[in-house]
Amino acid sequence: MTRRLLGTLFAALTATVLVGAAPAASAAPATTLATTFAGTVALSNCSGSVVKLAGAAETDRALVLSNGHCLEEGFPAAGEVIVDKSSRRTFSLLSTDGKSSLGTLRATKLVYATMTDTDTSLYQLSTTYAQIKSQYGISALELASTHPAAGTQIDVVSGYWKKIYSCSVDGFVNELHEGDWVWKDSIRYTPECKTIGGTSGSPIVETSTGKVIGVNNTGNEDGARCTMNNPCEVAADGTVTVHKGINYGEQTYLFYGCMVAGSEINLSKPGCALPKPA
Questions:
Q1: Is residue 168 assigned to a domain?
Q2: Whole-angstrom Cα distance, residue 162 to residue 36?
Q3: d(CA 119, CA 114)
Q4: What is the pLDDT of residues 144-198, one digit of tens each?
Q5: Contacts of 127 (CB under 8 A, 6+ apart)
Q6: Which residues of 174-196 are buried (b: 16+ CB within 10 A; e: fewer)?
Q7: Residue 57: CATH number of its domain
Q8: What is the pLDDT of residues 61-118, one digit of tens each?
Q9: Is 28 within a domain?
Q10: Taking the complete model, does pTM exceed 0.85, yes or no?
C-alpha cells in the first residue's frame, strides 16, 4: 500500500521502467465498451476519477473518488472516519486519450475518507457536473449501485500513470489485512492486473457497462503475511491466505445508501452501511 503513494520523485526516477513494462495480455473475453481515460484524474500521489451516483443532478457539485490512504496529510488511523473536512486539493482532469490534461479541478471539501472496512476518499469540487461537461466535454463516471459479480471483466484506469490495466474479478475477500488496517469484502483481481505504485485510487470499471464498481488500493508485493505492502486474506474461520503478486480493490456501491442530494453525505441515513466516526 505504501508503494502506491509514491509521488513525483518516484515517478521521475522510475517512469521509464514501470510505464515501459506492459502487463501480460489478458485471456479475458473482448470488452463490450471501450474504456478510455475520460472522467479520470491525476492526484499528486495517486489516481482518481470524477464520479456520480445514478440520478444525481447535473447542477450538483461534482465528486472525485480516490483512496483513503491517498490523503495529503497521510493515512487515516485504523478506526478513523473523516467527514466534511475543508479541502483545497487539486486534480488534473485527463483527456479522453490520456495524453494531456484538460485543466485543473479544485476541491472545496473532503466529503468522506476512511481506511476502516474500506479504503476510500470522496471529495466535493467547486464545479458542477454540468460545468465540467460544458468546459471540458467530459462526463462523470457513474458508480454501480449493486455488488459486482465474480468473473466480471474490469479495467483499472490510472490517471497518475495514464495506463489501463485489464483483467477480471477473481473473487471477494472476507477480510483483507495489511498492517493496522482491515478491509472487508475486497475485490481480488486475476493476475493480469499488475497494478503498481501510483495506481491507488484508480476507478475499477466494469467493461460491460462502463460503470465504476470499486477503487484500486493495494497488492501483495513480496509474499509476506499481513504486513505493509503485503496484505493477507483472512477467511471467516480465521484461515489466512497469502497471494504474492495479486492486487486488490474496494467496492463503492455502499455510497448509494449514504449519499443525499447535492453531493452530500448523511451517515445517519437509514440503511447507510459505510463506517461512521466513533
A1: yes
A2: 10
A3: 6
A4: 999 999 999 999 999 999 999 999 999 999 999 999 999 999 999 999 999 999 9
A5: 61, 62, 105, 106, 135
A6: ebbbbbebbbebbbbbbebbbbb
A7: 2.40.10
A8: 999 999 999 999 999 999 999 999 999 999 999 999 999 999 999 999 999 999 999 9
A9: no
A10: yes
